[in-house]
């Protein structure tokens, strides 16, 4: 194999020397073209896909097959160097017959492994930026996009990275039940926190958008100004929570329990529950003063003795709910659904 490649390289080298001299005649030019085509053809025949090949990358030898180099990313430089169509001539060889590539072996190793099995695996001591530059040099477009995505995630400020379920469970396990646990101002967006026990925990100012808190116990929690937009709190225990001015727009609170048997009221004053689902929830005695309940679904809710003074209930569905002794003074009931009420709604409840 080495003899054939050396012979081909010599032929190509001679043609390149002739190219640098005076312009050849028409007959000479035709002869040179035919020789070049012949040389490329000989080179192509020397690289069957099953053949093993040595690469000398920055002084380190890598042994691989032609198939590895050409199959994963056929438009890359390595694939074109060793493809059977002769799209690009290979580099020179060292004394052992390995093809010389003047690049960093430190960053080339993850690349050759990627071409072997299709997985990008980079050791912690290897710079992703270095591997990215090599991937760009060799024209490995799919690998470039993967590396750019990983680098973007790695460079994301830690303050903006949401905590995961594992992080939260670890904090819960390591904290004594006698110690106050605070997640104040923490980013928990999108976290799966279902069925966990969060009693007495402080979530003030926390970002909990689109969290899954279904069947969780949030009794006595502080949710003041917490962002729970579009979160799932179905069947959660929200007994005596402090949710002053919390954002629960579009949240799912179906079947939740807010009532404290001891008589301590849940405080949701000024909360944003626009478009939220509270169907079949037990909200007896809850404080919803000046809350935004526009377009909310509150069908079949227990709202006995609830405070809804000044609340915006426009287009709110309250059908089948129990509003006995509820305070609706100054509430906006425009287009609200008040059919099938458990107890009659008296005007005195809305004007006192």
From TrEMBL:
Transmembrane segments: none annotated. GO terms for biological process: protein homooligomerization. SUPFAM superfamilies: Pentapeptide repeat-like (SSF141571), POZ domain (SSF54695). Residues 8-36 have a biased composition (Polar residues). Gene3D superfamilies: 6.10.140.750, E3 ubiquitin-protein ligase SopA, Potassium Channel Kv1.1, Chain A. Pfam families: BTB_2, Pentapeptide. Residues 51-155 form the BTB domain. Residues 1-37 are annotated as: Disordered. InterPro entries: 5peptide_repeat, BTB/POZ_dom, Pentapeptide-BTB/POZ_domain, SKP1/BTB/POZ_sf, T1-type_BTB. This is BTB domain-containing protein. It comes from Glossina morsitans morsitans (Savannah tsetse fly). The lineage of its organism: Eukaryota, Metazoa, Ecdysozoa, Arthropoda, Hexapoda.
């Amino acid at each position: 194999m080495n003899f054939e490649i050396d012979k081909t390289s010599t032929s190509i080298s001679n043609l390149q020397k002739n190219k640098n001299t005076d312009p050849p005649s028409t007959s000479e030019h035709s002869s040179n073209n035919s020789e070049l085509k012949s040389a490329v053809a000989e080179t192509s025949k020397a690289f069957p896909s099953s053949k093993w090949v040595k690469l000398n990358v920055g002084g380190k030898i890598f042994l691989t097959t032609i198939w590895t180099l050409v199959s994963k990313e056929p438009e890359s430089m390595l694939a074109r160097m060793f493809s059977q169509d002769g799209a690009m001539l290979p580099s020179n060889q060292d004394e052992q017959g390995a093809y010389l590539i003047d690049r960093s072996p430190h960053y080339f190793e993850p690349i050759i492994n990627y071409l072997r099995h299709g997985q990008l695996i980079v050791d912690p001591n290897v710079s992703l930026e270095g591997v990215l530059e090599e991937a760009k040099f060799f024209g490995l477009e799919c690998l470039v996009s993967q590396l750019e995505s990983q680098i973007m995630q790695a460079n994301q400020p830690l303050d903006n990275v949401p905590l995961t379920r594992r992080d939260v469970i670890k904090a819960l396990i390591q904290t004594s039940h006698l110690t106050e646990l605070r997640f104040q101002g923490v980013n928990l967006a999108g976290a799966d926190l279902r069925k966990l026990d969060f009693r007495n925990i402080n979530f003030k100012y926390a970002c909990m958008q689109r969290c899954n808190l279904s069947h969780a116990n949030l009794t006595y929690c502080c949710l003041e100004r917490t962002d729970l937009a579009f979160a799932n709190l179905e069947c959660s225990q929200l007994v005596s929570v402090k949710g002053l001015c919390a954002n629960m727009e579009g949240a799912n609170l179906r079947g939740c329990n807010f009532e404290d048997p001891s008589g301590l009221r849940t405080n949701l004053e000024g909360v944003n529950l626009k478009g939220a689902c509270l169907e079949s929830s037990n909200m007896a005695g809850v404080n919803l003063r000046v809350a935004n309940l526009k377009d909310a679904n509150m069908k079949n809710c227990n709202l006995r003795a609830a405070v809804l003074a000044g609340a915006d209930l426009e287009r709110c569905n309250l059908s089948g709910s129990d509003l006995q002794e509820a305070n609706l003074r100054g509430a906006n009931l425009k287009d609200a659904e008040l059919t099938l009420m458990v107890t009659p709604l008296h005007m005195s409840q809305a004007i006192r």
